[in-house]
Predict the structure.
Amino acid sequence: MPREHYIRLIAGTFVMGSLALGWFVSPYWFLFMAFVGLNLFQSDLSKWCLTKPILRKLNVGR
């Protein structure tokens, strides 16, 4: 599976996880969801995402 798919999978997991934590634990977890959304926005504009070099170093994806 290409690295881009892993990045989307991780971002979606973070969003859904923070949604569940915000609903069941504390509304402050919604701030984490906002951070993930802002990171997705900046990565689209700058064409750089921190997750990509981390996955490359872990030898995940191609």
Notes: The helical segments are 3-24, 29-46, 51-57. The first helix runs from residue 3 to 24. Residues 3-56 form one domain.
